[in-house]
Amino acid sequence: MSGFQIEVEVLFMIETRGLTKIFKDKKRGEIRAVDGVSFTCNPGRIYGLLGANGAGKTTTLRMLATILEPTDGTAVVCGHDVMDDPQKVRANVGFLSTATALYPRLTAQEMVEYFGRLNGIRGAELKKRIDEIFSRLDMNSFRDRRCDKLSTGMKQKTSIARTLVHDPQVMIFDEPTLGLDIMTARTILEFIRECRQRGKTVIFSTHVMSEVEKLCDTIGIIQSGKLLAEGSLGELRERHKEQDLEEVFVKVVAPHYKPEEAA
């Protein structure tokens, strides 16, 4: 598949500096959902954002995808600032979120075709891309089934196909295996690994330790909106004198953990 061309030469496909998002709540006052997060992601690498519920993972990814505007700090994706050039960021990004809905009356194929056309892809090129994605994600058996008749796993695969039909350079996945059976989750994780092999940059959020252990070049541990630790699996183990990633996570997060944030 041939994707959008990045117009500028970039060292990092994703770079954030002091990225912050503050929400105002009538009862709780000011909520710093993301608090001064800085990290980089190199081309052709997988970055895993590991954290509990309410840690700030989804908010961070939504800012990278230009769904939310940062309160402070900067985020640059594919050489384009998310605030200054949101359209160019979107052209180079595929964003999968648990909050993203499918149109119930469209079939799986119609859903993906629709988003392909929205991204300026038509005719033989669109058919080729859809055939490739449907084959790889094992979607051909339900390509003509309406989205409201699909299982949870089928819906997730359709959402991924829709996200990737324009062949983005950066893929942003928010909890991509949440609620899926083992076999479907395995297919999706293998697909993410293949995306890296094709030179794509992937950042995804999860609370599943095994996923980041198997997939990630770099792991960022986030809690209470702060990036508390970052490095390869080997670096994190060595730095915190633990071989088990779960023990590393607990050691890093425990001093900052607030049960009310996970509610």
Quick structural summary:
With 263 residues, this protein is α/β, with parallel strands linked by helices. 35% of the residues lie in helices and 25% in strands.
Keywords:
263 residues, alpha/beta, Rossmann fold, 9 helices, globular, disordered N terminus
Can you put this structure into words, describing what you see?
By secondary structure, the chain is an alpha/beta fold. It has a domain of 180 residues: P-loop containing nucleotide triphosphate hydrolases (Rossmann fold, 3-Layer(aba) Sandwich). The protein contains 9 helices and 10 strands. The chain has a 6-stranded mixed beta sheet with strand order 6-7-8-3-9-10, with helices on both faces. Strand 9 and strand 10 form a beta hairpin. Helix 3 runs parallel beside helix 5 and helix 8 crosses helix 9. It is globular. The N terminus is likely disordered.
Helix-strand blueprint:
Elements: E1 14-25, E2 29-41, E3 46-50, H1 57-64, E4 72-77, E5 80-81, H2 86-91, E6 93-96, H3 108-118, H4 123-136, H5 152-164, E7 170-174, H6 182-197, E8 201-206, H7 209-215, E9 218-223, E10 226-231, H8 233-240, H9 245-253
Parallel strand pairs: 3-8, 3-9, 6-7, 7-8
Antiparallel strand pairs: 1-2, 1-4, 4-5, 9-10
Helix pairs in contact: 3-5, 8-9
